[in-house]
Amino acid sequence: RKEVEQDPGPFNVPEGATVAFNCTYSNSASQSFFWYRQDCRKEPKLLMSVYSSGNEDGRFTAQLNRASQYISLLIRDSKLSDSATYLCVVSAGSYQLTFGKGTKLSVIP
Amino acid sequence: DVKVTQSSRYLVKRTGEKVFLECVQDMDHENMFWYRQDPGLGLRLIYFSYDVKMKEKGDIPEGYSVSREKKERFSLILESASTNQTSMYLCATNRDRGDWAGELFFGEGSRLTVL
Asked: Which residues contact B62 (CB under 8 A, 6 or more apart)?
């Protein structure tokens, strides 16, 4: 069975804090990696793709370590609006996507 | 913008009833998916389709069937609803890129309660 494991959470952090989420995957044939964000009672939406070289989008940095089969997401200077569940998604093909169970983040004033 | 529309946001059905959940996308995507999402279990794939009239079982197909007669429409059918099918159902689509998964676009979800 192809598994994607995420930090159990929940993470409760103060505004302005830096928080990191981790994700491990078991399928070594995985080709594409993503972080999705899901707000309460809403559908998931793509936050960012994760590339081998690592990538950054504003306060968000994603890293991939293929050798260790490990993905991370770093959020700097947390905002209240960052409160959501973050889903790690790993794909071995166009329709072979496996979701982690998600990590809930609450940013506290 | 991609739009994925699910026919019903909230449904309440009785045990044994037949339930249809419809999903329509407007971006000519090849792949369409049905997931269910339950607390503590995450998103689990029920069925997916990579072309008209083509369907493949996901991780939890038991108790469900699907239909894809047109490229833009993918229906999930519960032949005889049971209480353990109470869940949030999410439809998603993406473009077929072979070995590489394109961004998944989700509908707003259909919350089904079976009494």
From this structure: none
